[in-house]
Amino acid sequence: MMDKRQFLKTSGAFLTSTILSPFASAEPPLSSGAAAAPRTNWAGNLTYHTDTLLAPKSVAETQQMVKAAPKLRALGSRHSFNAIADSAAAQISVHDLDSKSLDAEARTVTVGAGLRYGDFAPWLDEQGYALHNLASLPHITAVGATATATHGSGVANGNLATAVSGLEIVTADGRIAQLSRAKDGELFQGAVVHLGALGVVTRITLDLQPTFQVRQVVYENLSMDRLEHNLDAIFSSGYSVSLFTDWQEHRVSQVWLKSKAAPGATFQIAPEFYGATAATRKLHPLPGHDATPCTEQMGIPGPWYERLPHFRMNFTPSSGAEIQTEYFVPRAKGYEAILAVEQLKDRITPHLFITELRAIAADDLWMSPAYHQDCMAIHFTWKPEPDEIQRVLPLIEAKLAPFNARPHWGKVFTMPPSRLAQVYPNIPKFQALLKQYDPQGKFRNQFIDANIFGA
Ligand SMILES: Cc1cc2nc3c(=O)[nH]c(=O)nc-3n(C[C@H](O)[C@H](O)[C@H](O)COP(=O)(O)OP(=O)(O)OC[C@H]3O[C@@H](n4cnc5c(N)ncnc54)[C@H](O)[C@@H]3O)c2cc1C
Fold first, then answer.
1. The pLDDT of residue 315
2. In testing the pocket of ligand 1, which one of 27, 40, 73, 80 has its CB within 8 Å of the most ligand atoms?
3. Torsion angles phi and psi, residue 125, rounded to 5
């Protein structure tokens, strides 16, 4: 298997023609300034088109830098796989904005935009609080993740952006805008999944709930036939449920069931789940990968932040040398959509590490893939084979067209802007919001120009 260093050497042609920087595989801290800046995204499949990385130490300094820059793009923890965070002019990382404060009465937490979920989740837990959900990894910033509507799983769980109740944003003129769900109504619903195009977020406020414990149990070999009549029941069998498949043999290779655990309650793993059998050891979702980086399984209870993600904070999540893609379809049509993609299995599997199927509850955030629609997300963790992926994605998108599939904003897709405009009904309203907040287009990059304004 190709390791990350080899991948960085060979994947430079994907989405970019610039030469990879010598810093690509070293992963220096984001705040280390322009000279030592990481000039690729986390996976290394994209080299950013600027060598300028601004690293303000305070909100005031962020304001000065934003005001002075003619063109700018905020960068989070670099985990997006496409050019959404790229810039041909300059990027700004607010990595050093790391404040955190609780409001017990409002039951919210406000954190600096530099913080990753894994940086503040254990502290929240110590104070007796939890977030409603997390993505597969805790390594991403809350601001960067919610900007693209990043999600976990759970039929009753909205994506991570649905927990956002306030945003502090430095807008194009260097002034601070305080937006909140309570005060700004519909405008706020437009601003939460902002794709980095509204301004530079310096603080984010998230809803909390009392802390809780979770048990994770993995089952192996679920026939896809069982999904035909039980898809909703299966996704509803736990607080958060993920199904993994390589598309071969009409089966789900692993079911990850994450359930809330009542403290002190006795628990025994049921040996069978819809014909699938309980795993007898900890597993990695990618075949052949060591399970050490994965969160605890085998029904052992633990805090929400150590069970809801699949991967542990101090380890490389997933594969590392990989590319990701994801499409959201109405959950009511989930099984039909699975069958449609399955027709391409022999085109998909040779280039795939694994597919994951998850459930996301409907929301009212304009640019969310789950806007007004309970969703099932069909995710692909690809091997680092950019050319083959570029060839297979249009085939998958054609198969999913009858379901009006919406692509994940932070992953690789080939859907043209005219199609995006059909499946994301709020793009015209979002364009107007961006023009209101950023009339000169300071925060627009090639990705935003093409995908939001290019239809
Ligand atoms: C291994 C791996 C696993 C993943 N698992 C999941 C998953 O389970 N579910 C899922 O939905 N996605 C998943 N993703 C995708 C990832 O969650 C998204 O791409 C997310 O947006 C990355 O956040 P980031 O902090 O790295 O931000 P970046 O990728 O750096 O930026 C993302 C966007 O946020 C904007 N942004 C960042 N910071 C700011 C700021 N301060 N102000 C304004 N805008 C800002 C950027 O401009 C850009 O538009 C995964 C990615 C990887 C690499």
1. 84
2. 80
3. -60, -45
φ and ψ at 257, to 5 degrees?
-105, 115
Reading the block at residue 34, the tokens are 């322009």
Query: Rounded to the nearest 10 degrees, what angle do helices 386-400 and 334-342 cross at?
Result: 130
On whether the CB atoms of residues 94 and 74 are closer than 8 A, the answer is: yes
Q: Are strands 251-261 and 276-278 parallel, antiparallel or unpaired?
A: unpaired
Instruction: Give the pair of three-digit tokens for residue 219.
Output: 């089952």
CA-CA distances (angstroms) from residue 215 to 218, 231, 266, 328? 10, 21, 12, 27
Token readout for 440 is: 């000169």
Using the atom order of ligand 1, give the atom closest to the CA of residue 142. Answer: 25
Per-residue model confidence as pLDDT tens digits over 376-404: 999 999 999 999 999 999 999 999 999 99
What is the average pLDDT value for the chain, to the nearest integer?
92
Q: Give the contacts of 27 (CB within 8 A, at least 6 positions apart).
A: 38
Nearest CA to ligand 1 atom 36: 144
Two tokens, residue 30: 């984001």
- Which residues does ligand 1 sit against, CB inside 6 Å? 42-43, 73-80, 84-85, 94, 113, 135-137, 140-141, 143-145, 147-148, 150-151, 195-196, 200-201, 317-318, 324, 408, 410
Show the DSSP H helices in 203-310 as ranges: 225-235
Q: Which two tokens stand for residue 168?
A: 């502090």
pLDDT confidence of residue 38: 55
- Cβ(78)–Cβ(42) below 8 Å: yes
Statement: residue 2 has pLDDT above 60 = no
Render pLDDT for 147-172 as a digit per residue (tens, 0 to 9): 999 999 999 999 999 999 999 999 99
| Displacement of CA 311 from its chain's centroid (Å) | 13
With left for phi above 0 and alpha for psi between -120 and 50, is residue 2 left, alpha or beta? beta
Give the pLDDT of residue 262: 87
Cα separation of 305 and 81, whole Å? 24
Alpha carbon distance 75, 91 (integer Å)? 6
pLDDT tens, 20-58? 222 222 233 343 344 454 599 999 999 999 999 999 999
Q: Which helix (H) or strand (E) holds 5?
A: helix 4-10
